[in-house]
Amino acid sequence: MDDSPQAPEIPPTVHLRSLLPSLTPKLAVVAEEILADPAEVVRISVADLAQRTGTSMSTIVRLCQELGLRGFQDLKLRLVAEETATGFDGPVDVDDRESVLSKVLSSTVDAISHTQHTLDTASFNQVAELVFDARTIIFVGAGASAAVAFDAAFRLRTLGHRAEFHSDSHMQLTAARFLRPGDIVVAISHSGSTRETLTAVEAASSAGAHTAAITTFARSPLAQSVDHALLAGGTESEFRIAAVSSRIAHLAVVDALFVAIASLRPERARAAQELWSDMIDEHRLSPPWATRRDAND
What we know:
The protein is α/β, with parallel strands linked by helices. It contains 15 helices and 5 strands. The protein has 2 domains: 12-87, Winged helix-like DNA-binding domain superfamily/Winged helix DNA-binding domain (Arc Repressor Mutant, subunit A, Orthogonal Bundle), CATH 1.10.10.10; 117-281, 3-Layer(aba) Sandwich (Rossmann fold), CATH 3.40.50.10490. Helix 2 crosses helix 4 (46-53) and helix 10 packs parallel to helix 11 (195-206).
């Protein structure tokens, strides 16, 4: 009997969002209708959903099969379970400014919560070990993902690893191409379809290096092209400036990788952190309360 822990079941709306960019137009229309109001979908029939989306009942069944479900009734049961566990939260209403803060914060919390369902633990551990063993680690990313890639490289540097990030896409490509077998490139991208990021991954693969990605969509070109895809992300608001909530989820995965890598050799990590801390302390101004004399002196 297998007593190993089972991976958490992916909630249907989370699974749908991860597949959305790869669906055919008809399947995407149905998926978007479900995501727009999953609570309403629970209350209607498969014929009603087909009529609302201008598709057929067979299209809806095909979408359910894409999710690994038996049919529409199975989807409804899963949606009910998801609503019971988390509740369904609607998009940000820009005309209701009182709700903007709570909605955006809720979206961020959901993105991190969803990551617990979409992130494969075995792949995560493999990436942590590959990064730990690599002579050189290159992080690549464009736009908002560049900030996450920079943070990842900086954090690993504080552990004593040779981690690099280059803001220029040509430098990313060059650094990736000059990697060696045993090295690794870690690409970060919300959409998983940024040309510069994909090119850098292809260059690293051609050099014989390992490839990994932190991305949102399971069937994106990036997720399909790397050795290990770490899926993280969530719902985006209408004003999805640089995929806000997914960026936070990607940062959370970077934080988790940092801790996992440090735990592989704690004594080395502690020594590196102490060295880094001592170096940074030399460049910090003394706090004002350390030099201010008591008023009564």
